[in-house]
Write a structure and sequence with these properties.
The chain is of the alpha+beta class. The protein has three helices and four strands.
Length: 87
C-alpha cells in the first residue's frame, strides 16, 4: 500500500469535490491509501498549502497536484507515482 494525503480543511466545498474525485479514482488504484488531512491542525501545512487547497500530496516523493483537478489528472498522477515506485 502507498499513501497519499488529501490536504484541505473543514467546510471547504472544493475539498469535498476533490474527495469525491479521489474516491472515484481509488476504484482504479485500489492499492493506494488516501488520508484526509485538515491543514488547520498543522501550521506547516497551513503555511505551505493554505491558498492551494485542496491538494493531493504524495509524502514519499513530495510531489503534489493542486486544485483544480479531475479524475483523469488524478489517475495520471497516481500512475506516474506507481511507475516511479517500480523503477
Amino acid at each position: 500500500m502507498s499513501l497519499l494525503l488529501l490536504l484541505g480543511t473543514s467546510g471547504c466545498h472544493l475539498c469535498e469535490q476533490a474527495e469525491e474525485i479521489i474516491l472515484q479514482s481509488r476504484i482504479i488504484h485500489p492499492h493506494w491509501v488516501v488520508e484526509l488531512i485538515d491543514i488547520a491542525e498543522q501550521s506547516e501545512w497551513q503555511d505551505k498549502y493554505a491558498i492551494r487547497i485542496p491538494v493531493l500530496y504524495h509524502p514519499g516523493s513530495q510531489e503534489d497536484i493542486g486544485w483544480p483537478f479531475d479524475i483523469e489528472q488524478v489517475d495520471q498522477f497516481v500512475s506516474r507515482l506507481t511507475a516511479h515506485n517500480h523503477d
